[in-house]
């Protein structure tokens, strides 16, 4: 036995971390959930007397000195810094499981306003949420149910659809698919020919064309054959009421994929020309046709709405003061405040005890969430302003002027823990005169130039991307040539480093980038 002290994260501190780390869209959803479940919080267009609001144009600030918000939840963040300093691994473990634990604080059911004929602003806000889209499998099964195929083929097709991956490919063999089939299907002992017939029916009848392919080559062939059939139908009907198609380009593409797929993938176009008897311009025509096809037909059918990026802050240039000013964009969040009537009821001894306790608990949750959002805004804006000050050259001259910037100096400057900085920049984006940029991208390590100055690794990647973008496509730059070109710019790095950054950018080798004329 021993006597000692140990600091632990409270559920409120865990939720504080979540609020700080949430991107704007997720925070909006979290606030809507609270509005639905907590009757003591309400949306307001104009601040009520004694109300606590979130959002509004008054949030605009350009320096740390302009921020004087010190909400109650600031103590949670301060204790969190102390805990993280003493228990870094434990803090991460606590936080990683916090989403499940916070469910216990959402035990209140939805409440509606009782005023007759009055619209509930909370319900109106929730009604704007989009419904979940159908998954790829659900959409394909709907199509398959409407096809005119035999019952045994239909049953096997349903099993094959369930075995498709996110790209729409059938990566498993028929034997592996059969092992996962229901016993009712296994008992019929379908042969490989039966599975093949069902798969071909899927490839022919389901959309988008290319679904059910077993590899990239087959996926392209299915799409080419489908387009060739449409071209033939247009010729027979002597009309063209759809997208114009290049029959010659499709025929060339069909042969390239069917006979010279490996050589084409390795950019051996002169070798293909010698074997196939094509001119280089004809091969380029076929490749251009292939670029219009999809190598992942299932990707466009994924469930849900495309994730949009909502910048958490905007950085603008002030010509009069010759500096960049930052302000937050969370004015899109609903303006919320504590319902004063409920607050009075919670203090009224004439109200039943159980009701008062219910209201006090909800009032506490609402006040804490409002304070936590205010502290999030306070911390995030300070971090953004510090980054803007440190990376002024980026805003003036572009990505190549990025400086190495670890998070520790920003944490020291603001008097907070580096883990708090990391959570503040997580999944956040800012809108700048140079486009929308991930806030985390301003933090990176760096390399020393030949002049002894430090240059950000992101700046090196930007320089490599610029070199490749302006190269002669008939004679692309090798990694060694880029080493020399970068050295002329004062950046001296090894060839293997250039190759590593090129791979990170998703840029192929010089041989694969080479374009052949004809």
Q: Which regions are unreliable across 5 or more consecutive residues at pLDDT < 50? A: 46-73, 90-130, 235-244
The class by helix and strand makeup works out as alpha+beta
How are the strands of the largest sheet arranged?
3-2-5-6
Tally of helical segments:
25
- In angstroms, what is the radius of gyration? 30 Å
What distance lies between the first and last C-alpha atoms, to the nearest angstrom?
A: 85 Å
Q: What's the β-strand tally? A: 8
Specify the overall morphology. flat
State mean pLDDT (0 to 100 scale). Answer: 77
Give the DSSP E fraction (strand runs of 2 or more residues).
5-15%
- Residues in helix, %: 40-55%
Tally of structural domains: 3
Main beta sheet strand tally, sense and closure: 4 strands, mixed
SSE layout:
Elements: H1 11-21, H2 24-37, E1 41-43, H3 74-86, H4 88-96, H5 98-101, H6 121-127, H7 136-145, H8 151-162, H9 174-180, H10 183-186, H11 192-205, H12 216-237, H13 247-259, H14 261-265, H15 269-276, H16 280-290, E2 313-318, E3 323-328, E4 336-338, H17 340-347, H18 353-390, H19 392-397, H20 407-414, H21 418-425, E5 429-432, E6 435-438, E7 446-448, E8 454-456, H22 457-469, H23 479-488, H24 495-504, H25 510-513
Parallel strand pairs: 2-5
Antiparallel strand pairs: 1-4, 2-3, 5-6, 7-8
């Amino acid at each position: 036995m021993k006597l000692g002290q140990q600091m632990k994260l409270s559920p409120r501190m865990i939720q504080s971390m979540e609020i700080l780390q949430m991107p704007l869209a997720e925070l909006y959803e979290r606030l809507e959930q609270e509005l639905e479940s907590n009757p003591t919080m309400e949306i307001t267009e104009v601040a009520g007397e004694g109300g606590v609001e979130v959002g509004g144009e008054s949030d605009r600030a350009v320096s740390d000195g302009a921020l004087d918000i010190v909400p109650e939840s600031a103590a949670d963040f301060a204790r969190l810094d102390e805990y993280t300093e003493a228990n870094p691994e434990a803090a991460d473990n606590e936080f990683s499981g916090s989403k499940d634990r916070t469910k216990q604080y959402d035990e209140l059911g939805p409440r509606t306003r009782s005023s007759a004929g009055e619209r509930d602003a909370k319900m109106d806000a929730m009604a704007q949420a989009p419904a979940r889209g159908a998954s790829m499998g659900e959409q394909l099964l709907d199509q398959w149910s409407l096809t005119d195929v035999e019952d045994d083929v239909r049953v096997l097709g349903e099993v094959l659809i369930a075995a498709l991956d996110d790209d729409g490919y059938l990566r498993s063999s028929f034997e592996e698919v059969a092992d996962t089939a229901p016993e009712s299907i296994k008992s019929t002992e379908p042969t490989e020919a039966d599975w093949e017939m069902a798969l071909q029916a899927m490839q022919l009848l389901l959309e988008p064309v290319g679904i059910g392919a077993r590899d990239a080559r087959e996926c392209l062939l299915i799409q080419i054959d489908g387009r060739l059939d449409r071209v033939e139908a247009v010729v027979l009907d002597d009309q063209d009421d759809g997208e114009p198609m290049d029959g010659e380009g499709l025929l060339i593409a069909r042969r390239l994929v069917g006979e010279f797929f490996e050589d084409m993938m390795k950019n051996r176009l002169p070798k293909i020309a010698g074997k196939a008897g094509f001119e280089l311009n004809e091969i380029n025509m076929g490749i251009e046709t292939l670029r219009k096809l999809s190598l992942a037909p299932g990707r466009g059918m994924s469930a849900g709405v495309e994730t949009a990026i909502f910048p958490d802050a905007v950085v603008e240039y002030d010509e009069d003061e010759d500096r960049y000013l930052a302000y937050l964009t969370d004015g899109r969040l609903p303006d919320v405040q504590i319902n004063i009537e409920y607050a009075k009821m919670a203090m009224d001894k004439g109200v039943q005890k159980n009701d008062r306790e219910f209201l006090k608990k909800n009032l506490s949750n609402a006040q804490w969430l409002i304070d936590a959002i205010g502290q999030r805004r306070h911390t995030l804006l300070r971090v953004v302003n510090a980054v803007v000050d440190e990376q002024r050259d980026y805003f003036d001259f572009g990505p190549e002027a990025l400086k190495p910037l670890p998070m520790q100096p920003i944490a020291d400057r603001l008097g907070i823990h580096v883990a708090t900085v990391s959570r503040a920049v997580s999944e956040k984006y800012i809108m700048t005169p140079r486009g929308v940029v991930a806030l985390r991208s301003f933090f990176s390590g760096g390399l020393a130039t030949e002049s002894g100055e430090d240059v950000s690794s992101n700046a090196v990647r930007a320089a490599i991307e610029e070199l490749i973008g302006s190269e002669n496509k008939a004679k692309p730059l090798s990694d060694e040539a880029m080493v020399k070109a970068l050295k002329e710019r004062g950046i001296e790095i090894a060839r293997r480093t250039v190759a590593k950054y090129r791979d990170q950018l998703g840029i192929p080798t010089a041989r694969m980038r080479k374009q052949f004329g004809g």
